[in-house]
Amino acid sequence: MVSIRKNALKCSEASRLEFYVRCPFGLETTVAHELESMDIRKVRPLKGGVAFFGSLEQAYRACLWLRSASRVLLVLLRCSAKDAASLYAGAQTIDWSLHLNPDLTFAVSARGTNTELKNTQFTALKVKDALCDDLVKKFGSRPDVRQHRPDVQLEVAVRQDKASLYLDLSGEPLHRRGYRTQGEQGAAPLKENLAAGILLKSGWLGTVTSQKNRIEEEQQATRQREILLDPLCGSGTFLHEAAMIAADMAPGLLREYWGFSGWLGHQEETWNELLEEARVRLEKGRANMPRLIGLDTDEAVLDLAQQQAERAGFGDRILFRHASVEQARRVVETALSEDSKKGEIIELGKTARQGMVVTNPPYAERMMSENDLPLLYRKMRQGLQGLPAEWTAHLITPDTSIDMHLGLSPYETETLYNGKIEATLRHYHLSDFASNTLQINRPQDGIPVSVSVLDKGAGQFAARLRKVDKERRKWAKREGISCYRVYDADLPDYAFAIDRYEGIQGSTHEVYTCVAEYKAPKEIDPEKVQRRHFDAMNIIPVVMDIDENNVISKVRERAKGGGQYREAGDDLETRVLVKEQGLTFEVDLRGYLDTGLFLDHRLTRDLIRKKAEGKDFLNLFAYTGTATVYAAAGGAHSTTTIDMSNTYLSWFKRNMSLNGFTGSEHRAERADVLAWLKKEKMSGARYDLIFVDPPTFSNSKKMEVASWSVQRDHVDLLKDVVSLLRPKGEVLFSCNLRSFKPDVDGLSASGISIEDITEKTIPEDFKRSKRIHRCYAVYRKYRQST
Q: pTM of the entire structure?
């Protein structure tokens, strides 16, 4: 037996029609409040929508005025949908001649499935068949199907063994306001109804627009003193929607198509009356509007936003400026000064203006990499800190770490969906900045700077960093060193390695800082670790007097395959040239963990230079070949450089070229070192000085062995290396395994002597962590005296 609901249009009480409003998840309550503000009662929020009973006039008003909804649907039928036959039977109980005739067009869409109705196209087809069969019986012909903008748009929604059949009054999604053509948007935009819902949830102008809302004269002055700022505005969706709210403009006023326009039940006179009422309200509302300002660094997308504002009728009411987020205060003050009829200079801090920031920052899932986000967040923090403390800020993002980067805690969060991405709407009081700041005197002029911090120990870290940075600078200047370690986990709670690089590009010198964080013990709260990292990244550029864009944070992680180095990229634009002890090297500060120049090997490299004169030098596991550059600078007769990576060998060749070493006496070869040693031994080639700095561990498929461990395999390695030595030759063997212990007995049994020279190879700037590497002199046990 088919269970149906009586056809809505035959209901004796016109006010008892049933409607369902779809909306983005998280905006159900907002849509319900909007409906209630239109004097619509019996409103019931559900998951993903809101149900209400009312008249057709009220449904029209909902179509025209709802800001945060997606569609308004008239419920025609609820019936069984346990299989195709029951769905067809239910759809045939509707008198379709009340809705359309053969001269009109229609379309049916379907959503939802069950065990019998598994294909939505098939489900829609069964409803279409029922409709057409009914009209053929009554008229002898059937209407045509038109998918784009039909006269009547129908929808069937299947859930378990039930179906609901709707007439879609909106026709197209309500977020299509009419001021923007489809696809005419910036990167990763918000839909208009989600933007409007966020504005309403954030309290823009205090309340949801009501049909009875009129702007009282005593309220106008207050409204004119309000400001809405989107400092990352893109194509301006927040600003367009805010303007419509402020002007009391119906969001559907510019739309050309509605799903009810060709419907036989449409009440044209009622609709026209509502349109005229909306036009009157808009004319009055536009008279006194607040200031709306959008910033973006993309001029093309700002031009697009301006065009759309003009179509919506707000071209002269929204100000778009080509500016970065950290320039927010200056742009707002300039705009207000230009607005002032008195020609006065406006300073936000000295006015009673109220304001709100609403924005949709980029994030990794949409348009920005995770490595770029911290810098953007720092700029956002700088921009927000320049605004009055009385303002609020409202951001939608899935990235909960944004609180830490901004230095703010939200007073409320709400879950919303930006398309399929689960996000949160985060509400902040900008006054909270004042309680989370640290005053630091700039080293160059002593001027105090306010820095956002989250951890109580941040002041102690700042003081320690200032002390060691000052000492290191004096030492580096005295020794002529331009790349060195400044801080090495001096405070256990701030376990960072902070290195300073002075770049040279022609006559330009630019300073960079690389910050690598040591992995925290498992018992340490990860959130606390994040907060300290945030504080450090705010403090470092101020204390060390470095552009924050040149502070590069890297995470220490083991490379795939356990190699000593992670594979480098080929993006030469990220490279910087630096000087070390009179030699020039290319370093990659941003690309990956290892920069291409191990600062702790500075003395080891210098030792090679001192020993290399007139000798044949071999560099194994050469990486970027910096040791070879030193050997060549020391007057080596020849150099041979072996590494398994083409990328690193290319890098090595650039390093050699930078220092003028391009002759045929300098040979480089791509090879697995372990296999190459056996081959070279058979060739009879011999060397006077060999540097070998193997990985701690490797299971690279490029190697001839399944895995390699420096602790387990160093004896076999050194036996092969020593076999290439001339009688008076010497090997410098280094490794960075902190727990490494040489097998002295095993080496001795093979006629090899090993001497620990680690102490003399640890530079001054690494003496806090003397286990940074191990270094040994290795030679034949009975070598001839030199």
A: 0.69
